């Protein structure tokens, strides 16, 4: 029979590491060990109380309950606390792909985009200079679709796009399929 030891704030982290020692996936073990180490250090640093811990659990539970197959709230939480951007920025330091730095993918993401020079003096540095839209701020909505994306890169059939610039309307209309809508806000 194994000896039962008394757990204290100073010994609990090592006890958890011992429990995780048989984790078969080395990368999972590395990630979880670091997560436990940092979470325990955080709790010690801020002297987390049981009531505060419960509030945190309730918050995470509420985030989980708000998730649906079409709505991933944990991604939004990751964005809010800067974790999504941090992961992308760390990737950029070691990326082997050519092109611009990664960004969080959005409705205008396209694979293999041309590289644009950075800086205000470069004629290629601003898409607004090349567009009749100027510095308009178009917005788009593409509802979830069970169908895979079109190989042509065209938007989903129910996509819509809105722009504050009337000069953008011909571009928006040309980009959308006939069954889609374009409105000027």
Question: Which short descriptors sum up this protein?
Answer:
3 strands; 7 helices; mainly alpha; three-stranded mixed beta sheet; 42% helix; 185 residues; disordered C terminus
Order of helices and strands: HHHHHHEEHE
Side-by-side strand order of the widest sheet: 1-2-3
Which geometry do the CA atoms define? extended
Distance between the termini: 72 Å
Largest sheet: 3 strands, mixed
| Mean pLDDT metric | 73
In what range is the share of β-strand residues?
5-15%
Radius of gyration based on Cα positions: 24 Å
Oligomeric grouping of the chains:
single chain
Unreliable stretches covering 5 or more consecutive residues: 122-126, 171-185
How many runs of DSSP E, i.e. beta strands?
A: 3
Secondary structure class reads mainly alpha
Summed up, what is this model?
This protein is mainly α. Helix content is 42%, strand content 6%. Strands 1-2-3 form a three-stranded mixed sheet, with helices on one face.
3D structure, described in words:
With 185 residues, this protein is mainly α. It has 7 helices and 3 strands. The chain has a 3-stranded mixed β-sheet with strand order 1-2-3, covered by helices on one side. Helix 1 packs antiparallel against helix 2. The longest helix has 21 residues, at 26-46. The model is unreliable at 122-126 and 171-185 (pLDDT under 50).
